[in-house]
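User: What would this chain look like folded?
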Amino acid sequence: MFKENGRYFDGRIVKRVRKAKSMTQRDLAGRIGSFHQTISWIERNKLKPDSRILRALCDTLDLQIDDFYTDVEPPVRPKAPTSVGDAIQQARLAAGIDQATLASRVGSRSQVSISHIETGYRRPSRKMARAIALALGLAPETLWKFLPSTPELDVNVPPKNIGEAIRKARIRKGLTQYQLSRATDMAVDSLSRAENHFVCPRNASLVRLATYLGEDVEVFLRLARLAKIERRAAKQARTTEDRLAQQRAPILLGQMQSVPIARS
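Assistant: Here's the prediction, encoded as C-alpha cells.
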C-alpha cells in the first residue's frame, strides 16, 4: 500500500467523490488529462497518482491533498492472478518495490522489460520467470504454471533457420539472451525476435554472434540468405494475390450489377 508521512493514500476516496459528482471514470480522466485506465488503477489502490494528477484531482473534485490520505491502511482484496504478468505485478506490489528495483534484481537492463511482462506485451522465458520469482521470494512454480510447457530443444539437431541456429548456439554456450546481447552489442529484444525468426539480423551482427559463440560465420550468413529469400518469395506471393484480387474486383462488380433485382 502507498504510505507517506505515516498516512496511507486511499484511492477509494477518489471513487466515492467521483460518483457523488455523477462522473464516470472517462469523464474524470478527460477533465484531468489522463486515461480512464489510470483512474481505475488509482481507485483500486493499484497506482499512486503523481503530483500533477493529484493536483488535477484536487481541482476537479474540490478536495485538498490531505483528503486523499487516511490513518488506517485501506483493505486490499487482490484478485487471483490470471496470467504471469498479473502474478508478478501482485507479488511486486506486495513486496513494496517498483519495476526499476525488480529489474535491477534480475539483471535486466531497464524496467521496460518488467513493464512489458506485467502488461502482457511480452512473455518471459522460464529462466527469466525463475529469476523474477526468486527476486520476489516466490517459488518458481508459482510463475511457471502460467507459462506454456515447451518441448526440450535438442541442440544437436541441425537448425532449420537462422533464428534456431542462434538460439541453439547460445544454449550450448550456457548464455542467456541478456548476456549474449551485452557481449555482442545487440538489443535483447532484437536478439529475441531474431531467435523466434521474426527478423533476420544484419550481416555485421551475424558475424559478431557467430564469432562470440564459436560458430561458423559462413553457416550463419548462408542461413540468413535463405531466410531473406524465403521472406522475399512470400512477399511476392502476397503481392501477386493482391494484384489478382484487384483485377477480379471489377469483374465481380459487373457480374453483381448484371443480376436482375426481383421486384415485389
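The chain has three domains: 3-70, 84-91+98-144, 151-259. If you want, I can go into more detail on any region.
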